[in-house]
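Contributing: when you submit paired examples, paste them exactly as shown. First protein:
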Amino acid sequence: MDEFRLVEKLMGSAFELIIVDSDKIRAEQFLQEGRNEIKRLENLLTEFAQSSFTSLLNENAGIKPVQVDLEVYQLIQRCMNLSKLTQGAFDITVGPLKKLYNFKNEDFVFPEKNTVKKNLALTGFQHISLLDDHKIFLKKKGMHISFAAVGKGYAADKVKALWLKKGVQNGVINASGDLTVIGKKSEEQPWQIGIANPDAASEVLCFLPVENASVATSGDYEQYFMQNGKRYSHNIDPRTGKPVSGIKSVTVISPGAELCDALATAVYVMGFETGLHFINQLPQTHCLIISDKNEVFHSRNLTFKYAEK
């Protein structure tokens, strides 16, 4: 059996598709089909093309409902359910708050309280209306939704479903380090997923053995700033409008990539105590958290091993 790969920038991220197979022609066909599926979803969900449903919804916020494809409607519905489940820690309407912060600016200045308050009023999943006939209405003018926290995961799930239908038994969808695996690396061993050291992204802190599951990490590796000795992440708490502190990275493992993506963001916002308690209530879902003091916390029953130094 050989490994066949396709590497391409899709959805603004570096995607690597891997298939383990004995037939080169078949494997390369599956890789192309996976790439085409990601491209199709990028066209539906991107914020950077006027023709996408995301752009149409944002342009018509506070003006009129927009009819979307059934899969986009269902994706928004699932995102809203996750917002309810996480009590607002995950929210696709966080866009207006993200515009207030520049995390690559060393001379960081917090935005004015009034500005945060004004943009906070444009945020909140409760301002999305799901209407009949696959119509969605963003109730407030100036609202801005984004699938940045779930789009790659959704695409990975769709490629996995496509490949399983075609009979693929071993493969990986790697979306900039967020991984979805099918089967094992070989008959003897599962895929080993390395979790990066938040202070040195090229170093592996620990390994997770993963089989038929997804892994997503939310980390502030490069996008953070320090103020008065306190480290703030690029992740924004949609409930307060403020950047999150206390955590360097969150890794979530579960059967679905979309869920992993969303939960990694949500747990980051919740903080390690609330986040771990929350993850421990969910079936087949695990997480590993690295605090800003480099302490490692993990949910019950998570199997992992530290990398040898």
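Second protein:
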Amino acid sequence: MAYLLSLLAAGFYGAADFTGGLATRRAAAIPVVLLSQACGLVLVAIVLPLFPAASPRTADLWWGAIAGLTGGVGVALLYRALAIGTMSIVAPTTAVIAVALPVLTSIALGERPGWIPVAGIMLGIMSIVMVSRSPSPEEPALGAAKGRGGQGVRTGLGPALLAGIGVGLFLLALAQVRHEAGLWPLLTDRIASVTFFTILAAVGRRSLRMPLNLATLAVGGGALDMIANGLYLFAVQIGPFSAVVTLCSLYPASTVLLARGILGERLSAWQTAGVFTAVVAVLLIVS
């Protein structure tokens, strides 16, 4: 059951990233993220009473809040990267960083992984180099670049790498909550992220207005993301952490498929190889 939940979470994560990235291409990132996070807060507040009574501890709620802050920042950076770069490249790049972080954390805490995870990390670095290659003059420009050539890829990789760190910290933080906590950590997760982005918008005096179609995309992305978070939380509470993270980290597959089918994104040969290499790296890192 944990593996099924993880695969479903990966599908919803990928769809949420595509939806949020699409909205951020025509609106500022902070309003989109704030609206999507607020939607997630409303959704979890509605479904929370429908689940059996839980007994969260203070630590569970704090881990949820930490997950909300790190994950919220990660999502904002990811949406920005998806908006200015190529979704088929940004998504797997973020996934490689996000899944490598737990391994590096384990090493820092004294654990020594085998040669396979280390090979996965090296392969992940290689995949980032491959996907960042600009198309040669004879190769077609990327679909998402809209005539900007490889510039969108180079610009999108920076936020994508930082987004991977945020997502990795989110996965680590949410994995610390106990099974008895139920969905309560997701409530403090969204309270923390909504509060943070509200303050950020107020300090920057950013307008939260956006066209109805973009607001609908943001709300839809927030709902998909919250569903994915719930599935991941349940999966990591009943299944092995490494296996759950592995399957959840395959979310770029749905993002790539949606970007290819809806946006018509096309990659060069090197970048296509880099995307596949990134997926293999994810599997090796947590094998």
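If you have annotations for the second protein, write them as plain sentences, like these:
Residues 2-285 form one domain.
The mean pLDDT is 82.
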